[in-house]
């Protein structure tokens, strides 16, 4: 079974996400989208589709990374979220029971041995 297919995004906490994003836009030329993050488009996606990687600061008090105390969270692209979550559970990993499904794809979470929350993302078909 294919597991991780790429880096979906890097999410991290910031004291002032809007100001930090503006700094990255001004000084590093990263085009910040209205929702506050940056979309990097892949020129050569191994999946044969046009993939993206997201860079996005979150509020310092965001609970989105819980139960991890880390100030960051990786988002990894996966080929089959439900199959991977089942395999991770069978392997004894700490997997969140919650799965989100929306027009943006399917999202699930696992916590690594050091307590870092990792978001697993199955993009919608054709993305």
UniProtKB/TrEMBL annotation:
CDD domains listed in its UniProt record: VOC
Superkingdom, natural source: Bacteria
Domain VOC: 6-123
InterPro entries: Anthracycline_SecMetBiosynth, Glyas_Bleomycin-R_OHBP_Dase, Glyoxalase_6, VOC_core
PROSITE patterns: VOC
Name listed for the protein in its UniProt record: VOC family protein
Source organism: Roseateles flavus
